[in-house]
Write a structure and sequence with these properties.
It catalyses: ATP-dependent breakage, passage and rejoining of double-stranded DNA. Pfam families: DNA_gyraseA_C, DNA_topoisoIV. Keywords: Coiled coil, DNA-binding, Isomerase, Topoisomerase. Its EC number is 5.6.2.2. The structure is a single chain. 28% of the residues lie in helices and 23% in strands. It has 1004 residues and is an alpha+beta fold. Strand 1 and strand 2 form a beta hairpin. It folds into 5 domains: 45 residues, no CATH class; 129 residues, Topoisomerase II, domain 5; 80 residues, Gyrase A, domain 2; 129 residues, Orthogonal Bundle (Topoisomerase, domain 3), CATH 1.10.268; 409 residues, 6 Propeller (Neuraminidase), CATH 2.120.10.
Length: 1004
């Protein structure tokens, strides 16, 4: 039946009664219907699909995946992996009524370390790659929760969140996860909804935790907290693929640049400029190659290579001769070899302009707050997370308090029953049924129903005396826990303290180093130095002129022993952005880019400079590649015959010639030592015959590069200088002889005098002790530092500095090393210690029982990240003294010494002899005590540990890592003949790189 409009009314009757409706058709206005339907669709996409919740940082699909893996499949980090298809099916069938591809793609992304800063899923199999490869089908891959994902779900069973029915009303799922982890900030999120989108960048966990701790400490005045205050902790986004992030952005031509990061954190929207990390490498025949080691976030490497190749074929980029991908499991390495005529800077600029090597990240801090999309500032995001954790801890504490009171009530009944055990037993025996027994216990002894049932359920073994004692101890602990929980719920400030404690525990376990380098410049103003990797490395020079470098983050006993065994004459620390200035024995100088020194193998000095293989290199100095305009210090030069000279640091840095003279050395003399001074310090010189002199450096006027020096110390015949360094007025002078006789004497015993004097006795030299081989100024409070003595045959003997006896100046010292007749001490160096640090053996033992996350390693990586922001002082990298060649006929070779500077606030230490310090460990007074893990804290019946205040980051001050000079090496079987002519190297100085603080666009 139809109406006048031809629309079926479905009202045909049977015996006058209408049929049952199968469906209804009604007339509606299409405009109104589309508006209503589209609005419903839009709200569904916004609230239930595309935008993350500000509290746990998850979209519904991600939340359902994690919940299903944790609750239904028990796929925690300590369980075996299961097929991804099983996981996807569980999520689809119970919680997420959408396509299987959507669920699998979401799960895959949570397992990709190049997509999430802290992956929440541990995948096994092919889960895709940065090359753009798709993950394998779900039937092939397997997965389980990552360890850090446990923090998202912990306490879910304690009624901490609200729940709702699933799509078919057969199961319950959580509205939100407890999320002890600030997931929205550390992993970020992106999604396109209807009429809006979100694009939240990832951040460093340690920085976010520090900012949260700062906000908690000032929560009473949270309104006064500014974005600038929070940015002292959160420097900016930290992308999993690293790269370079420009802080400043030029809005319009001619206008002053804006801080793009601060703008995004203040208003929730900003445009960030990301750039790949690249550097230049010199190859043979004057050619250069560009090496790309890090890409901007979400850049497809394969598509990038194809884009570069297309641009070269089309002629839009010229000067590229070869393009290849050398990436492997050790890291990314895209090599672009240039033609001989190409300008490397121009080619790199074109690559940044025309390829995804440089791109814009549109920051949009949009998330759901109480079910409504809101554009948030950084401060508001942190505040909402703290409020979320306050609610979780309140509900968790109420749940724990309820359970504790219930258990205490039962234990109280059991203890009372044990006090009247005979009467209880008689009552139970006289009862005909369990119900009667329970009622009799309640009536006769006033037990509650719960207590009576617990008494009936109690096993006979619980009647033993020890079991009674356990019940008493349990009851005592329960009362303490009840008191603690009640106090916690009554005191909001203590709830904040628990939040802070848990956050610091998370940072201790999972915190790591920053990956993205933030550059305080605008786009297009990077210098060549900025493009070089900023890595702290050891640079070593052998007596044969071999240069090697190795990352300073990998210290080990084997490395130290290898340096001694091979009789290395120089070892210093520098940045890969520094220049290494090498000096010949006749006072000439040339420079080498530290990044040009190979990490594997070695390279001759003659291959990298204008020197020839016949030139004896006797000193080296690391200086920043770029001057920052405040170089006011000096370089102090010392020769074997006691001649000294001061030149301005900027005079050396400004000379870009292949070779230039820094001191005119007289015939028969050799340059021995070069180190930096501040201009008003005292220096001390030590000779092989045990004499020393102390004088103020201002007595040596500053001279031009080509001038000779002035007398620093008068020497007796056949004597020579073996050490020169800066004086620590409250420190000590360590001296050691070839035969291993060593001692410490206070520098207060060495009075200052005018230069060019004969000096005073510092070490008694006899035929038994041999000549003084090396000396070193030990700074104040260095008794706990380690000294490692190395013999000519490579035997290393470590000992604490305090083990070297403190004696007067004019004594021969104590024999500390047993030597054969053909052996002699050739080197000794000092490693500053950190109280409480574990030795390598202790760390290895602790790793056996430690959870998979290495807390010590996490702390180390964090401190490594801070190293690049440290500013060096003029005395950093104080010299690397090396012994000069011995007189003819001595039958020994010249050796050397090294002083290593670590530009970090962290000291160096070891807790076991012979074990080198980990240069990244924090000093004990600066280290935050390791809080208990979250599970440990919850099991305790006492209030949580108090953790120290989070300190505002400050500029780190350098700490020296010194190598005492190597001494002449006895050559067995040479019959006492001199090998002086073969000595190549004798002094090295490390001068740290100055921190770049440019904040405005430099003038062209």
């Amino acid at each position: 039946m139809t109406d006048t409009n031809g629309v079926s009314t479905n009202t045909a009757s049977n015996n006058g009664a209408p049929d049952a409706f199968i469906g209804a058709v009604r007339i509606a206005d299409i405009t109104q219907e589309m508006q209503t339907a589209y609005l419903d669709y839009a709200m569904s996409v916004i609230v239930a699909r595309a935008l993350p919740d500000v509290r746990d940082g998850l979209k519904p699909v991600h939340r359902r995946i994690l919940y299903a893996m944790w609750h239904d499949l028990s796929l925690t980090y300590d369980k075996p992996h299961k097929k991804s298809a099983r996981i996807v099916g569980e999520v689809l069938g119970k919680y997420h009524p959408h396509g299987d591809a959507a669920v699998y793609d979401a799960m895959v992304r949570m397992a990709q370390p190049f997509s999430l800063r802290y992956p929440l899923i541990d995948g096994q199999g092919n889960f895709g790659s940065i090359d753009g490869d798709n993950a394998a089908a779900m039937r092939y891959t397997e997965a389980r929760l990552a360890r850090i994902a446990d923090l998202m779900l912990e306490d879910l069973e304690k009624e901490t969140v609200d729940w709702h029915d699933n799509f078919d009303n057969t199961l319950r799922e959580p509205d939100i996860l407890p999320a002890a982890l600030p997931n929205l900030l550390i992993n970020g999120s992106s999604g396109i909804a209807v009429g809006m989108a979100t694009n939240i960048p990832p951040h460093n966990l340690g920085e976010v935790v520090d900012a949260l701790a700062y906000m908690i400490d000032h929560y009473d005045h949270v309104d006064a907290i500014t974005t600038e205050a929070l940015m002292r902790f959160i420097k900016g986004p930290d992308f999993p693929t690293g790269g370079i992030l420009y802080r400043y952005r030029e809005e319009n031509k001619g206008e002053e640049e804006a801080d793009a990061i601060a703008q995004g954190y203040s208003v929730g929207k900003s445009r960030l400029i990301l750039q790949a990390k690249a550097h230049f490498e010199e190859i043979s025949r004057g050619r250069t190659r560009i090496v790309i080691t890090e890409l901007p976030y979400q850049t497809n490497k394969t598509a990038l290579l194809e884009r570069i190749a297309d641009l070269v074929r089309d002629g839009k980029i010229e000067g590229i001769g070869d393009l290849r991908d050398e990436s492997d499991r050790t890291g990314m390495r895209i090599v672009i070899e240039l033609t001989r005529s190409a300008d490397p800077k121009a080619v790199l600029a074109d690559l940044f302009k025309y390829t995804p090597l440089q791109q814009t990240f549109g920051m949009q801090l949009l998330a759901l707050v109480d079910g409504q999309p809101r554009l948030l500032s950084l401060k508001r995001m942190l505040q909402l997370f703290i409020q979320h954790r306050q609610e979780i801890i309140r509900r968790r504490s109420e749940f724990d308090l309820k359970k504790a009171k219930e258990r205490a009530h039962i234990v109280e009944g059991l203890l009372r029953a044990l006090d009247i055990l005979d009467e209880v037993i008689q009552t139970i025996r006289r009862s005909q049924t369990v119900e009667t027994a329970r009622n009799n216990l309640m009536h006769n002894f006033k037990f509650t129903e719960l207590q009576a049932q617990a008494i009936l359920d109690m096993q006979l073994r619980r009647l033993a005396a020890l079991e009674r004692k356990k019940l008493q101890e349990e009851y005592k602990e329960l009362k303490q826990r009840i008191a603690y929980l009640e106090d916690l719920l009554a005191n909001p400030h203590k709830v904040l303290g628990v939040i802070k404690e848990e956050l610091l525990a998370i940072k201790q376990e999972f915190g790591d180093a920053r990956r993205t380098q933030i550059v305080d410049r605008t786009k297009g103003t990077l210098t060549t130095t900025d493009l070089l990797p900023d890595q702290r490395v050891w640079v070593s020079l052998s007596k044969n002129g071999d240069l090697r470098r190795q990352a300073v983050s990998k210290p080990s006993a084997s490395i130290v022993r290898q340096v001694g065994k091979d009789s290395q004459v120089a070892l210093l620390t520098a940045s890969t952005r520094d220049y290494l200035y090498v000096f010949s024995k006749d006072g000439r100088c040339s420079r080498i880019g530290v990044h040009e020194i190979p990490e594997e193998g070695s390279k001759k000095v003659a291959d990298l400079t204008g020197f020839t293989g016949r030139d004896a290199i006797t000193a080296a100095l690391a200086l920043p590649r770029e001057r920052n305009g405040d170089e006011t210090g000096f370089i102090f030069l010392v020769t074997e015959q006691g001649i000294v000279k001061r030149v301005r640091t900027e005079d050396v840095q400004s000379n870009t010639g292949s070779e230039f003279t820094v001191i005119n050395v007289e015939e028969g003399d050799r340059l021995l030592r070069a180190f930096r001074t501040q201009g008003e310090q005292e220096v001390i010189l030590v000779s092989a015959q045990g004499q020393s002199i102390r004088f103020n450096e201002e007595e040596v006027r500053s001279m031009g590069l080509s001038a000779g020096g002035v007398g620093g110390m008068k020497l007796k015949p056949n004597d020579r200088i073996v050490y020169a360094g800066l004086v620590d007025p409250t420190g000590e002078l360590l001296t050691v002889t070839r035969a291993g006789f060593a001692k410490r004497s206070p520098l207060a015993d060495y009075s200052a005098q005018g230069r060019n004097g004969g000096g005073i006795v510092t070490h008694k030299v006899t035929d038994k002790t041999g000549e003084v081989a090396a000396a070193l100024v030990l700074p104040t409070r260095s008794e706990s530092d380690w000294l490692v003595f190395v013999t000519a045959r490579g035997v290393a003997k470590p000992m604490l500095a305090v083990e070297v006896p403190a004696m007067g100046r004019g004594v021969q010292g104590k024999a500390l090393v047993e030597l054969s007749s053909q052996d002699a001490i050739v080197a000794v160096w000092r490693i500053e210690s950190v109280k409480g640090e574990k030795s390598e053996e202790q760390r290895e033992e602790s790793e056996v029982s430690r959870t998979p996350i290495d807390r010590t390693r996490s702390t180390t990586e964090r401190s490594t990240a801070e190293r690049s922001t440290t500013k060096r002082s003029a005395t950093d990298g104080e010299t690397v003294p090396l012994a000069s060649p011995p007189p003819a006929g001595s039958g020994v070779k010249s050796g050397g010494s090294v002083k290593k500077t670590v530009t970090d606030k962290k000291s160096i230490s070891t807790a076991d002899k012979g074990k080198p310090a980990n240069v990244d460990q924090q000093p004990s007074e600066a280290r935050t005590p390791s809080p208990p893990t979250l599970n440990e804290r919850k099991k305790k019946a006492v209030p949580p540990l108090q953790t120290p205040e989070v300190q505002t980051p400050e500029e780190a001050t350098p700490v020296a890592f010194e190598f005492i000079e190597q001494v002449p090496e006895v050559q067995p079987g040479k019959g006492g003949k001199s090998d002086r002519g073969k000595s190549k190297l004798s002094a090295v100085v490390s001068v740290p790189e100055a921190q770049i603080k440019t904040k405005k666009k430099p003038k062209a």
